[in-house]
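Appendix B. One record, verbatim.
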Amino acid sequence: MPMVPTRDLVTRAATRRGCVTAFNVITLEHAVGIVMGAESVGRPVILQISENAVRYHGGRLAPLALAASSIARTAAVDVALHLDHVTDIELLYQAADAGFSSVMFDAGALTYADNLAATAAAANWAHEAGLWIEAELGYVGGKPDAPASAHADGVRTDPAEAVDYVARTRVDALAVAVGSSHAMTERTAALDHALIARLREAVPVPLVLHGSSGVPGDELHAAVVAGMIKINIGTALNVSLTRTVRDVLSRDPALTDPRKYLGPARDAVATTVRDFLTVLAA
């Protein structure tokens, strides 16, 4: 089926007071596994490719984007394509031509004034190109330029500041800092659900939770009830993929055919996606 714009999936989720889940794609196995998992429970998903993933592929956006788009178009569920955590303006300018319907522009490491100015310029360009744009205010833990802890003073998103930021940048969605951290391999994060509710009441655009791999299922469900609309998951897929590759190769160290270990790894990604989607649909 045709790819679905991210805007449509987010709008549908907001209308039913649920969420749509976005999963990070680094390899072909990620993309295929994500769609397999989504199909197994009949849920829409967003395939998102980060700037870091593009850097891993030699700075070439088109090959991975074309592969993900092809997989999306053959899926039995609705799938959107999103370009995530873009800091390089030249990469942003490639998004529309590469088939993306949305982009997350990340100026979160800048001062408020600089973040606002850079994001407003990015949003203006994105809207002219027909793209839905997400931005970030506050520091989500786990990024190299972020404070050491998602619970450090001053890192969480202030509702009043968020209202000003959204009005002046005209972004379509806002990623907020409410206690989650990127790159967590254990699901121990505790979210500030009261803050999520305050942000939902104050901010007129959908809220996005980054770093969701480290959030327990009940915390994720409560975050959606409190007002989160787009849930981003990446590290959990890498954990399941890598663990499976290790397990297969440890049982057969002489194995050389990558299909023998990447196939089970892809299936493990599908299982992880299915499990997250099941929790978030409850």
